[in-house]
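agent> Task received from the user: take the single chain below, predict its 3D structure, and emit structure tokens. No templates, no multimer pairing.
agent> Plan: (1) validate residues, (2) run structure prediction, (3) serialize to tokens, (4) report one or two observations.
agent> Step 1 OK, no nonstandard residues flagged.
tool_call: predict_structure(input=
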Amino acid sequence: MCGIFGYLSALPRPRKEIEHFLKVGSSLQRHRGPDGEGKWVNPDNTLGFAHVRLSIIDLETGAQPMLLEDAGLTITYNGEIYNYIELREELGADRFRTTSDTEVILRAYEQWGIDCVKRLRGMFAFAIHDARSNLVFCARDRFGIKPFYYGQSGDDIFFASEAKALLPFMGEIETDLNGLKDYLAFQFTLGEKTLFKGIRQLLPAHTLVIKNGSLTIQRYWEVQYELDWDHTKRYFIDKVRSDLEESVAIHLRSDVPVGAYLSGGLDSSIVAAMACRERAKVGFKSFHGKFSGGEYDESRYARTLCDKYSMTLFDQEFNSQDFIDYIQKVIYHLDYPVAGPGSFPQYMTSRMAAQELKVVLGGQGGDEIFGGYARYLISYFEQCIKGAIEGTMHSGNYVVTYESIIPNLATLRKYKPLLKEFWKDGLFDERDMRYFKLINRASGLSEVINWELLEPYSAFQTFQGIFWGDNVQKESYFDSMTHFDFKTLLPALLQVEDRMSMAHGLESRVPLLDHPLVELAATIPSNIKFENGELKHLMKLAFSDILPEEINRRKDKMGFPVPLNKWLKGELKPFISDIFMSQQARTREYLNPDFDITQLIADEGKFTRKIWGLLSLELWQQAFHDKSALYKGMLKS
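)
tool_result: status=success, residues=637
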């Protein structure tokens, strides 16, 4: 796990500053690689790669950038290729001079060219210079677990693991207004956009070829929702179980100890339990962050699992003062605001874990793949009522009936305020409109945001293009919802996963995002995955024997709950008010300068994130926009 940086002149002209470019780009990502650094510049001084290293596999000979001089190849790479042992054997073990997965990527490219990415099983972002073909080949893993940002300034092209590393080279630091409109709607951007104007992200499952100054981007993988009606429910239960067992086993490959995040929910508990069973003889460490008070303290579930498997549990309680002390660092390390306030406890828990080891496993991905969000049940509840009224219950659009869904509606007990808001208008509208309303975070900001600045871009139209993707069968509402989240929310959560762990030099691995398992899940009919409206129904059946019953049958899990809205009414109120009453905040172009922060705090509901979204934007402005001169000055020093 590492940080990568690269510079390429689009014109064949040398740059004497190239060594300094690499030094600056690496310095802004040093936290990603505390164990070493390296750089490489081609003989013409038109291209350079840099690398900061967190040593996980092949601690002695795996340094980067790595060269294969006999093939004219050089790589800078961030990630882990979990099937590197099998690929090494396939490619001929006697050809290798190291035991690293980095050399495996180079030999795979030498053997299969750009199609090598289809052979890789893992998380990765890399750039390979191919001297013989005079090109740079870049790729990002199928799910976007590892980041890859790029930008162009005049004839210069730059790429990096973190967007902040590109800021010194981009001229003025400006906000991408289309990205901002996405963010206000979803609290993440869609497509290649970031919140920085001029900085793009290479999308998951895409490659980028740079040759003769031109950039060519292609998709190399897509999840296909081609439903398998030939197999039984029992088959899918057994297949999911065996596929995840294999995934966890290869995700444990490491030359350093591996532990796990443990939230107390289904996904992290399954991953931790399987990993502990796999490594029972060497012991296992797990890490849990908690908040005091009722629904915000889930530590008893984490302890229950640890007691069952004799794991060592490290847990730490976080409070509102921790939030005040660390939130600016959280936003800085995120690069730009994304997703909800879970990034704060993720940062704190990673900080704790990094004091014990270098690698942790997490449960990210289960909600998007197997249907774990309460909003799926809310949407289906409405569609079941609509289908019952219109007599279309069995038309193929509904995977459950309103009668069968009733026993699982207890899951929505804590979501009654959200249901009230959702159903107050637009009831029974088209499915895309209803799901957009359910996830749209911009409602309630009409008096706060200067919307005229953000016209004419439509976040809803972009949403529709993803929701109705060609790879999803139109009659499956469940697949359309999970597909949108898989394509958009999941990469946002993975951005949090990567940045919050790498801020402390910690590698986070996500076994549920193994592409054979994801491909399998996409073929499972919704009436099996979502039977009777039970969230993650199939996962609960497949792993019931390894989990304590109180975890497997939980109906009250709410992600990584943060008592932010509770704090807003009390100890955080002065902190938030001071930030938004400042002269800096009142001059932001996207804000109406006379909005009432006190009233906004008073109106904040339990399931709304308006304050979080606005606070993240303001702290981001302070960390980067207000320090634009500092970043530009880095090239002069």
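agent> Step 4: summary for the user.
The longest helix spans residues 477-502.
agent> Done.
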